[in-house]
């Protein structure tokens, strides 16, 4: 049987053991938590492990298609190259009208006449005045010579001589005026007859018999049948490519067999209705069936603007418009606003990277654009999704036979 003293000693020993056990567990638990915390802190300072990203696939276009001259066909109207509005040059009453609209006339043919009687009276009057002026001049000359002789004999004064000289000069001027008036009267008398200056057709008659007309009034209009021209209206987008003497092809819907060539002879200085410029094409030859007023179709071939340069065509979607706007100092319009520096992205298949490239762009051709510089045949240009790519970006070419993930899938 255990006495009280022994029991107390055992209990005390057991308590000490328990206390030491609790202390050990507390110490090691604390160290374990500290170690876990340290490991956690060390782990937070390291960068997170990134999973491999899929390389984007881009749609590319291989450079090689060259641009050639553009052709445009415009409608026009045939006109006579030489249109002559005729007037008598002197006023009077028409007493003879010998032609009608549409009639063919020869050079020098009489077309109409004025009443000659008033003109004849005027002519006679001017002749009489000329004769009178001659007589007065002779009289003044005689008086001047007589006064000069008297002055030498001291029978006339210097003032009398000067008066005689002035009178002679005045009569000499009157004679010259009378001569000019007679010449004009003779011309007016000749103008009583209206003659055809060229051979052609009568396009318009604006007078009737016995009608009073003015000297500058247009009475008959002739159109030459030897030379024809076509009037067309060229849009403002084309006018800068036109040159004088540029050769064009002209066809006629009503006469399919009468296709001939022509040359640009006149280019309007300013646009008219619809922002189009008036242009005149002079036909190189004249078919007998062609008449003013008929419709013509003029074909313009524009290749001079290429200036013997090679231009490649690429899709318009390859132009990185957003990139160009963001870097306006580098990508700007040049060469008289006809060409521009624009950005594209080239695909480097060996490096698997995209490179930004500045190119010189020209005219639009539908969904394509001309490139004059910055590209070589065989270059691969990103042709879709250029908004989402950047310089130096890793990429691969999109293949249509297998699914790909990327920024520029069609």
Key features?
4 helices; disordered C terminus; six-stranded antiparallel beta barrel; 29% helix; Helix Hairpins; 410 residues; elongated; single chain; alpha+beta; conserved putative lor/sdh protein from methanococcus maripaludis s2 fold
Summarize the helices and strands and which ones pair or pack.
Blueprint: H1 4-44, E1 57-58, E2 60-62, E3 70-80, E4 83-86, E5 92-97, E6 104-105, E7 110-114, H2 116-152, H3 158-190, E8 193-195, E9 200-205, E10 212-213, E11 220-224, E12 228-235, E13 247-251, E14 260-267, E15 276-283, E16 295-302, E17 312-315, H4 321-326, E18 333-334, E19 339-348, E20 353-365, E21 368-373, E22 380-382, E23 396-397
Parallel strand pairs: 1-23
Antiparallel strand pairs: 2-22, 3-12, 3-16, 4-11, 5-7, 5-10, 6-9, 7-8, 9-11, 12-15, 13-14, 13-16, 14-15, 17-21, 18-19, 19-20, 20-21
Helix pairs in contact: 2-3
């Amino acid at each position: 049987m255990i006495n009280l003293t022994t029991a107390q000693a055992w209990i005390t020993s057991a308590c000490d053991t328990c206390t030491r056990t609790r202390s050990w567990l507390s110490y090691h638990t604390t160290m374990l938590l500290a170690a876990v915390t340290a490991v956690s802190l060390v782990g937070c300072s390291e960068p997170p492990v990134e999973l491999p990203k899929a390389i984007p696939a881009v749609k590319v276009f291989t450079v090689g298609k060259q641009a050639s001259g553009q052709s445009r066909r415009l409608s026009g109207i045939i006109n006579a190259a030489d249109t002559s509005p005729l007037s008598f040059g002197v006023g009077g009453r028409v007493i003879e009208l010998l032609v009608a609209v549409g009639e063919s006339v020869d050079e020098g043919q009489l077309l109409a006449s004025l009443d000659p009687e008033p003109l004849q009276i005027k002519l006679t009057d001017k002749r009489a005045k000329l004769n009178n002026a001659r007589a007065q001049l002779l009289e003044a000359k005689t008086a001047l010579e007589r006064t000069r002789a008297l002055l030498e004999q001291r029978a006339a004064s210097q003032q009398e001589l000067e008066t005689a000289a002035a009178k002679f000069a005045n009569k000499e001027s009157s004679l010259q005026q009378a001569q000019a008036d007679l010449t004009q009267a003779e011309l007016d008398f000749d103008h009583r007859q209206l003659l055809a200056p060229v051979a052609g057709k009568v396009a318009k008659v604006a007078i009737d018999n016995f009608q009073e007309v003015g000297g500058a009034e247009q009475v008959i209009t002739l159109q030459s049948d030897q030379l024809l021209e076509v009037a067309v209206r060229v849009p403002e987008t084309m006018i800068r490519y036109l040159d004088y003497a540029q050769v064009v092809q002209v066809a006629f819907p009503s006469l399919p067999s009468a296709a001939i060539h022509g040359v640009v002879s006149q280019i309007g200085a300013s646009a008219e209705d619809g922002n189009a410029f008036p242009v005149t094409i002079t036909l190189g030859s004249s078919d007998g069936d062609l008449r003013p007023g008929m419709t013509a179709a003029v074909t313009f071939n524009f290749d001079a603007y290429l200036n013997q340069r090679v231009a490649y065509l690429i899709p318009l979607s390859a132009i990185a418009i957003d990139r160009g706007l963001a870097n306006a100092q580098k990508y700007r319009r040049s060469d008289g606003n006809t060409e521009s520096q624009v950005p594209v992205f080239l695909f480097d298949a060996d490096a698997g990277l995209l490179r930004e490239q500045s190119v010189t762009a020209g005219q639009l051709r539908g969904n394509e654009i001309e490139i004059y510089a910055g590209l070589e045949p065989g270059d691969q240009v990103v042709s879709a999704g250029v908004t989402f790519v950047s310089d130096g970006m890793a990429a691969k070419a999109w293949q249509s036979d297998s699914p790909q993930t990327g920024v520029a899938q069609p």
